[in-house]
Write a structure and sequence with these properties.
By secondary structure, this protein is of the alpha/beta class. It is built from 16 helices and 10 strands. Helix 1 packs antiparallel against helix 16 and helix 15 packs across helix 16. The chain is globular and about 60 Å long. The mean pLDDT is about 95.
Length: about 375
């Protein structure tokens, strides 16, 4: 099929992936109200067109956390993303490097941090969940240091996993043991390209960084049971002391939606925050990122670096997020759909599409550089 936009990558991913995996990536929590808001509210942000301003020398580069990047875009951490193509996170980190942007490996990625480090030529970002087993967390942070990761993304909006109805409907959650395995296997058989590429040639299947604590168990039901049993609802701001004792590099707090929490993160010395509702996958009914971002930027934008994610489906959306107050934007579902559709080349092409769309958007809003993008680019009122 012809790929012209992010929606086309979603369609291609749906054709290629078994249903349980596509719905896991695509879905949100409960009735998916926030999932829809993320896309709809961002698309309604009106851009202010400016003309006759000599836009012949655009500069899309930016600086984040002491590093220079070709675009104000990063690949967000996605759980089990590597199951969407053969050793998928390794392919994605290479695509990100080729485009000069950060890649973020999830704690619960399909490939372990050591494998990503071996596949990468440059440092990458690592995302951390706080779990009950602090020795496991300490070990992960040590591995991130050894891998020379240049930023830690500490996700704080998942003290317990959200309730995602689609995963029950496909057998990814709820249906354990042989019944669940047979259900998912039947779906995989209908997608022979994926079954061969990932199921056969993509071995070993060890569930990445979680493999040591699963002790040889490799079923998805084992993985989700570990998440339910080990994610820590006692997490609090006091845990930043523990994180800082083990991690000395840039610390980015992911999952901020309220200005009060943003001020708390700034007061406790975080280097950045990610304004995010977890892609609509945690607490349904909360505001979209586009609605939450401006107030947070007003509260702490002069004290730390603000990033954002949620609902970004084009280069226009990247510019909108920047105009609302972000300094950088994380792509989530977009890169996983592209990975499923075309592997490393698919992710690279998707990022080039984002870049091309940003160039058009910047040209027609009269912004020659990323630093010039502000609320002046928006139609006010």
């Amino acid at each position: 099929m012809i790929i012209a936009n992010i929606a086309d990558y979603r369609t291609a991913a749906r054709r290629r992936l078994p249903r349980f995996l596509f719905e896991y990536i695509d879905g949100g929590s409960y009735a998916e109200v926030t999932l829809r808001r993320n896309v709809d509210d961002l698309s309604r942000v009106a851009l202010r067109q400016r003309v006759m301003r000599d836009m012949s020398a655009l500069d899309l580069s930016t600086e984040l956390f002491g590093q220079n990047w070709a675009l104000p875009v990063a690949l967000a951490p996605i759980g089990l993303a590597g199951l969407n193509a053969r050793r998928g996170e390794c392919q994605a980190v290479r695509a990100a490097e080729a485009m000069g942007i950060p890649f973020t490996l999830s704690t619960v990625g399909a490939c372990p941090i050591e494998e990503i480090s071996a596949a990468a030529c440059k440092p990458f970002w690592f995302q951390l969940y706080m779990v009950r087993d602090r020795d496991f967390v300490r070990d992960l942070l040590a591995k991130a240091v050894q891998a020379q990761c240049n930023a830690l993304v500490f996700t704080v909006d998942m003290p317990v996993p959200g309730s995602r109805y689609r995963d029950y409907h496909t057998g990814l959650a709820g249906a354990g043991g042989m019944k669940g395995a047979l259900w998912r296997g039947a779906q995989a058989i209908t997608k022979p390209h994926w079954a061969w590429d990932v199921g056969i040639m993509g071995r070993p299947h060890t569930l990445g960084n979680v493999a040591p604590v699963l002790k040889g168990k490799t079923g998805t039901e084992d993985f989700f049971k570990w998440m339910r049993d080990n994610f820590d609802p006692s997490i609090s701001w006091r845990d930043l002391d523990f994180i800082r004792s083990e991690w000395k590099g840039p610390l980015i707090i992911k999952g901020i939606l309220d200005p009060a929490d943003a001020r708390e993160a700034a007061a406790l010395g975080s280097d950045g925050i990610i304004v995010s509702n977890h892609g609509g996958r945690q607490l349904d009914g909360v505001p979209s990122t586009a609605c939450a971002l401006p107030a947070i930027a007003d509260a702490v934008g002069d004290r730390l670096t603000i990033l954002a994610d949620g609902g970004v489906r084009s280069g226009l959306d990247v510019l909108r997020m920047l105009a609302l107050g972000a300094k950088g934007v994380l792509l989530g579902r977009a890169w996983v759909w592209a990975l499923a559709a075309g592997g490393e080349a698919g992710v690279t092409r998707m990022l080039r599409l984002i870049e091309a769309e940003m160039r058009v958007a910047m040209t027609l809003t009269g912004t020659c550089s990323i630093s010039e993008i502000s609320r002046d680019c928006l139609v006010q009122g």
